[in-house]
TrEMBL record:
Homodimer. Pfam families: THF_DHG_CYH, THF_DHG_CYH_C. InterPro entries: Aminoacid_DH-like_N_sf, NAD(P)-bd_dom_sf, THF_DH/CycHdrlase, THF_DH/CycHdrlase_cat_dom, THF_DH/CycHdrlase_NAD-bd_dom. Its EC number is 1.5.1.5, 3.5.4.9. This is Bifunctional protein FolD. Residues 141-281 form the Tetrahydrofolate dehydrogenase/cyclohydrolase NAD(P)-binding domain. Belongs to the tetrahydrofolate dehydrogenase/cyclohydrolase family. It catalyses: (6R)-5,10-methylene-5,6,7,8-tetrahydrofolate + NADP(+) = (6R)-5,10-methenyltetrahydrofolate + NADPH; (6R)-5,10-methenyltetrahydrofolate + H2O = (6R)-10-formyltetrahydrofolate + H(+). Residues 6-121 form the Tetrahydrofolate dehydrogenase/cyclohydrolase catalytic domain.
């Protein structure tokens, strides 16, 4: 068996074109430039790299990016004040807080001050709670939302299937489990402390891996014909590795999202999708 590779680039291009048209129509009608603000504290290379990717995504759909860069030594109060200013600015329609933050800035405490209406990353507790309760409107974190759209585009059947999510982060693992549950899967959330993790993984019709351990999952973890979603992106030298060992997993799975090129292209386009929703609501309310 050789898995069907689910690559997100083509679908992302299609969605980008649709989003670009929608933003242009709404901006013309409202006379307001759609704007995403990105708050960065310090000069961490990972945050800086993500900011470059966000800039490209914004340019692709005709959205303005407002980077707000604070010194690494900024106090928690100064960072909170900058975030509050963005919350109150009617010209800003979405806000992202780029991580990692310096150790002296408590990420979870800062996120509590983020306006839920501008939380296009879906990290505020209110948005996380609305996702858990399956209530609209809410913002779904872009990475799992993109993966679900990629699976739906491939006509994956969810109802009644056994899904296993390895990883329990607030930004990928937990929301992915909820999205699968909302589609009537029977969901198990596993993690590094799960006993006999390979045997748990082998029960899955749909296996999602988001642990950040390069090539941890091998083909003998895979139920023959399963759908495998690899969220991993770990840089090893000059290459990026997923959480799955590609050759053996491709040989066992029915469908597989490769790294790079699988879920990755969908993430930032889904972020723009969230921004469109925020822009539409905020402009109509003003």
């Amino acid at each position: 068996m050789t898995a069907q590779l689910l690559k997100g680039r083509q679908l992302a291009k299609q969605l980008q074109a649709e989003l670009s048209e929608s933003f242009a129509e709404l901006a013309t009608a409202a006379g307001v430039q759609p704007t995403l603000a990105a708050l960065q504290v310090g000069a961490d290379p990972a945050a800086a790299g993500y900011l470059r990717a966000i800039r490209r995504a914004c340019q692709g759909v005709g959205v303005a990016l407002r980077p707000v860069e604070l010194d690494e030594k900024s106090s928690p109060e100064e960072v909170q004040a900058a975030l509050t200013t963005l919350n109150d600015d009617k010209a800003v329609h979405g806000i992202m807080v780029l991580e990692p933050l310096p150790d002296h800035v408590d990420s979870s405490q800062l996120i509590d001050f983020l306006s839920p209406a501008k939380d296009v990353d879906g990290v505020h507790p209110l948005n996380a709670g609305r996702l858990a309760a399956q209530r609209q409107p809410h913002f779904v974190p872009a990475t799992p939302a993109g993966a679900i759209m990629l699976l739906e585009d491939a006509d994956v059947t969810f109802k009644g299937k056994k899904a296993v999510v390895i990883g329990r982060s607030d930004i990928v693992g937990k929301p992915m489990a909820l999205l699968l549950l909302h589609r009537h899967c029977t969901v198990t959330v596993a993690h590094s402390r799960t006993e006999d993790l390979p045997s748990v993984a082998r029960e899955a019709d749909i296996l999602c891996v988001a642990v950040g351990r390069p090539e941890m999952v091998t083909g003998d973890w895979i139920k023959p014909g399963a759908v495998v979603v690899d969220f991993g992106t770990t840089y090893v030298g000059n290459s990026v590795k997923g959480d799955c060992e590609p050759a053996s997993v491709e040989a066992a799975a029915g469908m597989f999202t490769p790294v790079p090129g699988g879920t990755g292209p969908m993430t930032n386009v889904m972020l723009m999708h969230n921004l469109l929703s925020a822009y539409r609501r905020l402009v109509s309310a003003s």
